[in-house]
Amino acid sequence: MSEPREPTEILDLAFERASAHLAKPDIDNPQVVERVKFVCRSRHNRAGIRLLMACLLAKIHEPNLDIRKPYTEIGHPDCYSGRTYDEQYIGPFVNEHALPCNRTTAFLTPALRNRNIVLTPSVDLVGRPQKLYENALQLLDNVHTGKVSADDLLTEFMRQLLLIRNESQQRLDEMIRSLGELEEGIPLSAEDIVTLIKQHLACPRSSRLPVLVIAAAYEAARERLGERVLPLEDHHAADLQTGALGDLEITLMDDDEVVTSYEMKTRRVTREDIDAAIEKVSDTGKKVDNYIFITTEIIEEDVRDYATSMYDQTGGIEVVILNCIGFLRHFLHLFHRLRLQFLEAYQEFLLNEPDSAVRQELKEAFLALRRAAESSVDAT
Q1: Are 115 and 72 in contact (CB under 8 A)?
Q2: pTM of the model
Q3: Does residue 54 contact residue 85 with C-beta atoms inside 8 Å?
Q4: What's CA 320's distance to the chain center, in Å?
Protein backbone atom coordinates (compact mmCIF):
# COMPACT_ATOMS: atom_id res chain seq x y z
CA MET A 1 0.00 0.00 0.00
CA SER A 2 1.40 3.36 -1.03
CA GLU A 3 2.03 6.13 1.50
CA PRO A 4 -0.74 8.76 1.70
CA ARG A 5 0.12 11.91 -0.22
CA GLU A 6 -0.04 15.41 1.21
CA PRO A 7 -2.42 17.92 -0.44
CA THR A 8 0.39 20.10 -1.82
CA GLU A 9 2.04 17.04 -3.37
CA ILE A 10 -1.26 15.95 -4.94
CA LEU A 11 -1.74 19.37 -6.54
CA ASP A 12 1.86 19.53 -7.80
CA LEU A 13 1.63 16.08 -9.38
CA ALA A 14 -1.69 16.88 -11.07
CA PHE A 15 -0.21 20.12 -12.41
CA GLU A 16 2.87 18.33 -13.78
CA ARG A 17 0.72 15.66 -15.38
CA ALA A 18 -1.59 18.22 -16.98
CA SER A 19 1.33 20.30 -18.24
CA ALA A 20 2.84 17.26 -19.93
CA HIS A 21 -0.41 16.35 -21.74
CA LEU A 22 -1.98 19.70 -22.68
CA ALA A 23 -3.01 18.58 -26.17
CA LYS A 24 -5.27 15.70 -25.14
CA PRO A 25 -7.24 14.72 -22.02
CA ASP A 26 -6.43 11.50 -20.19
CA ILE A 27 -10.15 10.91 -19.60
CA ASP A 28 -11.80 8.75 -22.27
CA ASN A 29 -15.36 9.86 -21.48
CA PRO A 30 -16.09 12.92 -23.67
CA GLN A 31 -19.19 13.82 -21.64
CA VAL A 32 -17.11 14.20 -18.49
CA VAL A 33 -14.53 16.29 -20.34
CA GLU A 34 -17.28 18.57 -21.68
CA ARG A 35 -18.64 19.08 -18.18
CA VAL A 36 -15.21 20.10 -16.92
CA LYS A 37 -14.79 22.42 -19.87
CA PHE A 38 -18.16 24.08 -19.21
CA VAL A 39 -17.35 24.69 -15.54
CA CYS A 40 -13.90 26.11 -16.33
CA ARG A 41 -15.07 28.35 -19.16
CA SER A 42 -18.08 29.85 -17.40
CA ARG A 43 -17.14 33.54 -17.64
CA HIS A 44 -19.71 34.91 -15.22
CA ASN A 45 -19.30 32.41 -12.39
CA ARG A 46 -16.05 30.61 -11.60
CA ALA A 47 -17.02 29.35 -8.16
CA GLY A 48 -17.56 25.86 -9.57
CA ILE A 49 -13.85 25.47 -10.32
CA ARG A 50 -12.65 25.88 -6.76
CA LEU A 51 -15.61 23.91 -5.41
CA LEU A 52 -14.70 20.89 -7.49
CA MET A 53 -10.95 21.17 -7.10
CA ALA A 54 -11.30 21.34 -3.31
CA CYS A 55 -13.62 18.33 -3.24
CA LEU A 56 -11.37 16.34 -5.56
CA LEU A 57 -8.31 17.19 -3.49
CA ALA A 58 -10.06 16.03 -0.30
CA LYS A 59 -11.12 12.76 -1.93
CA ILE A 60 -7.60 12.01 -3.18
CA HIS A 61 -6.08 12.98 0.18
CA GLU A 62 -8.59 10.91 2.19
CA PRO A 63 -10.04 8.21 -0.12
CA ASN A 64 -12.62 7.11 2.48
CA LEU A 65 -14.40 10.46 2.34
CA ASP A 66 -17.65 10.91 0.42
CA ILE A 67 -16.78 13.57 -2.15
CA ARG A 68 -20.41 14.80 -2.11
CA LYS A 69 -20.21 15.82 1.59
CA PRO A 70 -17.96 18.92 1.84
CA TYR A 71 -19.71 20.18 5.01
CA THR A 72 -18.73 19.00 8.50
CA GLU A 73 -22.17 20.11 9.67
CA ILE A 74 -23.61 17.02 7.96
CA GLY A 75 -22.17 15.09 10.88
CA HIS A 76 -21.29 11.85 9.08
CA PRO A 77 -17.91 10.12 9.54
CA ASP A 78 -17.18 10.50 5.81
CA CYS A 79 -17.86 14.24 5.53
CA TYR A 80 -15.16 16.94 5.49
CA SER A 81 -14.62 20.69 5.29
CA GLY A 82 -14.44 21.65 1.64
CA ARG A 83 -13.82 25.25 2.65
CA THR A 84 -10.70 24.24 4.59
CA TYR A 85 -9.23 22.42 1.58
CA ASP A 86 -10.21 25.34 -0.63
CA GLU A 87 -8.69 28.08 1.51
CA GLN A 88 -5.59 26.25 2.73
CA TYR A 89 -4.55 24.53 -0.48
CA ILE A 90 -6.53 25.45 -3.61
CA GLY A 91 -6.36 29.22 -3.07
CA PRO A 92 -2.57 29.46 -2.66
CA PHE A 93 -2.04 27.00 -5.52
CA VAL A 94 -4.14 28.84 -8.11
CA ASN A 95 -2.56 32.15 -7.07
CA GLU A 96 0.96 30.73 -7.43
CA HIS A 97 0.27 29.45 -10.94
CA ALA A 98 -1.97 32.37 -12.06
CA LEU A 99 -4.80 30.00 -12.92
CA PRO A 100 -8.07 31.66 -14.01
CA CYS A 101 -10.07 31.11 -10.81
CA ASN A 102 -11.72 33.23 -8.16
CA ARG A 103 -9.32 34.55 -5.54
CA THR A 104 -11.75 33.76 -2.70
CA THR A 105 -13.22 30.47 -1.53
CA ALA A 106 -16.16 29.00 -3.42
CA PHE A 107 -17.79 28.04 -0.13
CA LEU A 108 -18.71 31.63 0.73
CA THR A 109 -20.66 32.19 -2.49
CA PRO A 110 -24.45 32.43 -2.04
CA ALA A 111 -25.10 29.03 -3.62
CA LEU A 112 -22.71 27.15 -1.31
CA ARG A 113 -22.51 28.93 2.05
CA ASN A 114 -24.46 27.88 5.14
CA ARG A 115 -25.16 24.42 3.74
CA ASN A 116 -25.27 21.06 5.50
CA ILE A 117 -26.49 18.79 2.70
CA VAL A 118 -25.09 16.05 0.52
CA LEU A 119 -24.36 17.52 -2.93
CA THR A 120 -26.22 15.12 -5.20
CA PRO A 121 -27.42 15.87 -8.75
CA SER A 122 -30.98 16.36 -7.42
CA VAL A 123 -29.97 19.34 -5.24
CA ASP A 124 -30.99 22.81 -6.41
CA LEU A 125 -28.16 25.13 -5.36
CA VAL A 126 -30.08 28.19 -6.61
CA GLY A 127 -27.06 29.55 -8.44
CA ARG A 128 -26.57 31.08 -11.86
CA PRO A 129 -25.99 29.87 -14.45
CA GLN A 130 -28.00 26.82 -13.43
CA LYS A 131 -26.20 24.58 -15.91
CA LEU A 132 -22.90 25.31 -14.18
CA TYR A 133 -24.12 23.87 -10.90
CA GLU A 134 -25.83 20.97 -12.65
CA ASN A 135 -22.52 20.03 -14.26
CA ALA A 136 -20.62 20.49 -11.00
CA LEU A 137 -22.98 18.23 -9.06
CA GLN A 138 -22.92 15.65 -11.84
CA LEU A 139 -19.11 15.57 -11.76
CA LEU A 140 -19.14 14.94 -8.01
CA ASP A 141 -21.55 12.09 -8.63
CA ASN A 142 -19.35 10.75 -11.44
CA VAL A 143 -16.49 10.39 -8.95
CA HIS A 144 -18.76 8.91 -6.26
CA THR A 145 -20.09 6.23 -8.63
CA GLY A 146 -16.65 5.43 -10.04
CA LYS A 147 -17.34 6.77 -13.52
CA VAL A 148 -14.11 8.75 -13.32
CA SER A 149 -11.28 8.84 -10.78
CA ALA A 150 -10.65 11.90 -8.62
CA ASP A 151 -7.01 11.93 -9.78
CA ASP A 152 -7.94 12.01 -13.46
CA LEU A 153 -10.63 14.62 -12.93
CA LEU A 154 -8.34 16.94 -10.95
CA THR A 155 -5.74 16.64 -13.71
CA GLU A 156 -8.36 17.51 -16.32
CA PHE A 157 -9.31 20.63 -14.37
CA MET A 158 -5.65 21.62 -14.33
CA ARG A 159 -5.37 20.98 -18.07
CA GLN A 160 -8.41 23.09 -18.92
CA LEU A 161 -7.24 25.96 -16.70
CA LEU A 162 -3.78 25.90 -18.26
CA LEU A 163 -5.30 26.01 -21.73
CA ILE A 164 -7.47 28.99 -20.80
CA ARG A 165 -4.55 30.79 -19.14
CA ASN A 166 -2.32 30.25 -22.17
CA GLU A 167 -5.04 31.32 -24.63
CA SER A 168 -5.65 34.52 -22.68
CA GLN A 169 -1.97 35.37 -22.51
CA GLN A 170 -1.58 34.70 -26.22
CA ARG A 171 -4.41 37.12 -27.05
CA LEU A 172 -2.85 39.81 -24.86
CA ASP A 173 0.58 39.23 -26.42
CA GLU A 174 -0.88 39.58 -29.91
CA MET A 175 -2.66 42.82 -28.99
CA ILE A 176 0.50 44.26 -27.42
CA ARG A 177 2.47 43.28 -30.50
CA SER A 178 -0.05 45.03 -32.75
CA LEU A 179 0.42 48.21 -30.69
CA GLY A 180 4.14 48.04 -31.33
CA GLU A 181 3.54 47.72 -35.07
CA LEU A 182 1.83 51.12 -35.33
CA GLU A 183 3.81 53.74 -37.20
CA GLU A 184 5.45 56.30 -34.96
CA GLY A 185 3.72 59.64 -35.05
CA ILE A 186 2.67 62.38 -32.66
CA PRO A 187 2.35 60.82 -29.18
CA LEU A 188 -0.99 60.88 -27.42
CA SER A 189 -1.74 64.20 -25.73
CA ALA A 190 -2.65 64.47 -22.06
CA GLU A 191 -6.30 64.91 -23.03
CA ASP A 192 -6.11 61.90 -25.35
CA ILE A 193 -4.93 59.83 -22.41
CA VAL A 194 -7.65 61.23 -20.13
CA THR A 195 -10.25 60.24 -22.74
CA LEU A 196 -8.72 56.78 -23.06
CA ILE A 197 -8.81 56.16 -19.29
CA LYS A 198 -12.31 57.61 -19.04
CA GLN A 199 -13.51 55.15 -21.69
CA HIS A 200 -11.83 52.31 -19.84
CA LEU A 201 -13.39 53.29 -16.51
CA ALA A 202 -16.79 53.22 -18.23
CA CYS A 203 -16.40 49.51 -19.04
CA PRO A 204 -18.30 46.94 -16.92
CA ARG A 205 -16.65 45.53 -13.78
CA SER A 206 -14.08 48.32 -13.59
CA SER A 207 -14.06 48.93 -9.82
CA ARG A 208 -10.35 48.06 -9.53
CA LEU A 209 -9.23 50.54 -12.19
CA PRO A 210 -9.15 53.76 -10.11
CA VAL A 211 -6.55 52.09 -7.86
CA LEU A 212 -4.40 51.42 -10.90
CA VAL A 213 -4.82 55.00 -12.17
CA ILE A 214 -3.43 56.46 -8.95
CA ALA A 215 -0.72 53.80 -8.63
CA ALA A 216 0.43 54.48 -12.20
CA ALA A 217 0.58 58.22 -11.56
CA TYR A 218 2.87 57.75 -8.57
CA GLU A 219 4.95 55.17 -10.40
CA ALA A 220 5.52 57.53 -13.33
CA ALA A 221 6.47 60.47 -11.12
CA ARG A 222 8.18 58.67 -8.24
CA GLU A 223 11.59 60.24 -8.87
CA ARG A 224 10.10 63.73 -9.13
CA LEU A 225 7.93 63.28 -6.05
CA GLY A 226 10.40 61.38 -3.90
CA GLU A 227 7.54 59.04 -3.02
CA ARG A 228 6.61 55.50 -4.01
CA VAL A 229 3.62 53.16 -4.02
CA LEU A 230 3.64 50.23 -1.65
CA PRO A 231 2.80 46.88 -3.34
CA LEU A 232 -0.88 46.65 -4.20
CA GLU A 233 -2.95 44.46 -1.91
CA ASP A 234 -5.34 41.79 -3.11
CA HIS A 235 -8.45 43.43 -4.53
CA HIS A 236 -10.66 41.17 -2.38
CA ALA A 237 -8.71 41.45 0.86
CA ALA A 238 -10.22 43.62 3.58
CA ASP A 239 -8.08 46.38 5.09
CA LEU A 240 -8.42 44.72 8.50
CA GLN A 241 -6.83 41.57 7.08
CA THR A 242 -3.93 43.30 5.34
CA GLY A 243 -3.28 46.02 7.91
CA ALA A 244 -3.50 48.61 5.14
CA LEU A 245 -5.11 51.99 5.72
CA GLY A 246 -6.72 52.06 2.30
CA ASP A 247 -6.62 50.69 -1.22
CA LEU A 248 -3.30 52.37 -1.95
CA GLU A 249 -0.52 53.53 0.35
CA ILE A 250 2.26 56.01 -0.45
CA THR A 251 5.57 56.30 1.38
CA LEU A 252 8.71 58.37 1.02
CA MET A 253 11.35 56.78 -1.21
CA ASP A 254 13.66 55.77 1.66
CA ASP A 255 11.04 55.15 4.32
CA ASP A 256 8.28 52.59 4.95
CA GLU A 257 6.09 54.97 6.92
CA VAL A 258 2.83 55.72 5.10
CA VAL A 259 2.45 59.44 4.36
CA THR A 260 -0.63 59.29 2.11
CA SER A 261 -3.43 56.74 1.93
CA TYR A 262 -5.97 56.48 -0.88
CA GLU A 263 -9.40 54.87 -0.65
CA MET A 264 -11.36 54.30 -3.85
CA LYS A 265 -15.13 54.57 -4.17
CA THR A 266 -17.28 53.84 -7.21
CA ARG A 267 -20.12 55.64 -5.43
CA ARG A 268 -20.53 58.95 -3.61
CA VAL A 269 -18.36 59.41 -0.53
CA THR A 270 -20.39 59.90 2.67
CA ARG A 271 -19.70 61.30 6.13
CA GLU A 272 -19.83 57.73 7.41
CA ASP A 273 -16.96 56.83 5.06
CA ILE A 274 -14.89 59.66 6.49
CA ASP A 275 -15.66 58.66 10.09
CA ALA A 276 -14.71 55.05 9.32
CA ALA A 277 -11.43 56.18 7.75
CA ILE A 278 -10.46 58.29 10.77
CA GLU A 279 -11.34 55.42 13.11
CA LYS A 280 -9.21 53.06 11.01
CA VAL A 281 -6.24 55.43 11.17
CA SER A 282 -6.67 55.72 14.91
CA ASP A 283 -6.91 51.94 15.38
CA THR A 284 -3.75 51.25 13.38
CA GLY A 285 -1.74 53.87 15.25
CA LYS A 286 -0.33 55.18 11.97
CA LYS A 287 0.11 58.92 11.50
CA VAL A 288 -0.52 59.87 7.88
CA ASP A 289 -0.37 63.33 6.34
CA ASN A 290 -3.20 62.78 3.84
CA TYR A 291 -6.18 60.45 3.62
CA ILE A 292 -7.59 60.87 0.14
CA PHE A 293 -10.84 59.48 -1.21
CA ILE A 294 -10.98 58.99 -4.97
CA THR A 295 -14.49 58.69 -6.38
CA THR A 296 -15.98 58.24 -9.82
CA GLU A 297 -19.21 59.96 -8.69
CA ILE A 298 -20.07 63.56 -7.84
CA ILE A 299 -18.78 65.08 -4.60
CA GLU A 300 -21.39 66.67 -2.36
CA GLU A 301 -20.35 70.03 -0.95
CA ASP A 302 -21.38 69.32 2.65
CA VAL A 303 -19.37 66.09 2.62
CA ARG A 304 -16.36 67.93 1.18
CA ASP A 305 -16.65 70.52 3.96
CA TYR A 306 -16.94 67.75 6.56
CA ALA A 307 -13.73 66.19 5.21
CA THR A 308 -11.95 69.54 5.48
CA SER A 309 -13.00 69.88 9.13
CA MET A 310 -11.11 66.68 9.99
CA TYR A 311 -7.75 68.51 9.89
CA ASP A 312 -8.35 70.26 13.20
CA GLN A 313 -10.17 67.31 14.77
CA THR A 314 -7.37 64.84 13.98
CA GLY A 315 -4.50 67.13 14.82
CA GLY A 316 -3.14 67.46 11.30
CA ILE A 317 -4.51 64.74 8.98
CA GLU A 318 -5.84 66.21 5.74
CA VAL A 319 -8.90 64.35 4.49
CA VAL A 320 -9.67 65.12 0.85
CA ILE A 321 -12.21 63.89 -1.70
CA LEU A 322 -11.14 63.99 -5.34
CA ASN A 323 -12.77 62.95 -8.58
CA CYS A 324 -10.75 60.24 -10.33
CA ILE A 325 -10.72 61.83 -13.78
CA GLY A 326 -10.14 65.28 -12.32
CA PHE A 327 -7.11 63.96 -10.44
CA LEU A 328 -5.76 62.31 -13.58
CA ARG A 329 -6.26 65.38 -15.77
CA HIS A 330 -4.44 67.62 -13.29
CA PHE A 331 -1.60 65.10 -12.89
CA LEU A 332 -1.05 64.68 -16.65
CA HIS A 333 -0.88 68.41 -17.24
CA LEU A 334 1.29 69.03 -14.18
CA PHE A 335 3.70 66.27 -15.29
CA HIS A 336 3.10 66.64 -19.01
CA ARG A 337 6.43 65.11 -20.03
CA LEU A 338 5.60 61.99 -18.00
CA ARG A 339 2.24 61.33 -19.64
CA LEU A 340 3.50 58.40 -21.72
CA GLN A 341 5.31 56.94 -18.71
CA PHE A 342 1.96 57.09 -16.91
CA LEU A 343 0.26 55.25 -19.76
CA GLU A 344 2.89 52.50 -19.80
CA ALA A 345 2.74 52.16 -16.01
CA TYR A 346 -1.06 51.91 -16.10
CA GLN A 347 -0.90 49.21 -18.78
CA GLU A 348 1.70 47.26 -16.80
CA PHE A 349 -0.30 47.42 -13.57
CA LEU A 350 -3.44 46.43 -15.47
CA LEU A 351 -1.93 43.40 -17.20
CA ASN A 352 -0.28 42.22 -13.97
CA GLU A 353 -3.57 42.14 -12.08
CA PRO A 354 -5.06 38.66 -11.55
CA ASP A 355 -8.19 37.93 -13.56
CA SER A 356 -10.22 37.87 -10.35
CA ALA A 357 -9.46 41.59 -9.88
CA VAL A 358 -9.43 42.70 -13.53
CA ARG A 359 -11.15 40.39 -15.97
CA GLN A 360 -9.50 39.35 -19.22
CA GLU A 361 -12.14 41.26 -21.17
CA LEU A 362 -11.23 44.47 -19.36
CA LYS A 363 -7.53 44.02 -20.17
CA GLU A 364 -8.33 43.40 -23.83
CA ALA A 365 -10.69 46.39 -23.87
CA PHE A 366 -7.88 48.72 -22.78
CA LEU A 367 -5.46 47.45 -25.40
CA ALA A 368 -8.15 47.82 -28.08
CA LEU A 369 -9.01 51.35 -26.91
CA ARG A 370 -5.33 52.31 -26.84
CA ARG A 371 -4.77 50.96 -30.33
CA ALA A 372 -7.79 52.91 -31.60
CA ALA A 373 -6.54 56.10 -29.93
CA GLU A 374 -2.99 55.78 -31.25
CA SER A 375 -4.20 54.80 -34.72
CA SER A 376 -6.36 57.92 -34.79
CA VAL A 377 -3.37 60.12 -33.92
CA ASP A 378 -1.26 58.43 -36.61
CA ALA A 379 -4.01 58.98 -39.18
CA THR A 380 -3.96 62.72 -38.63
Answers
A1: no
A2: 0.82
A3: yes
A4: 27
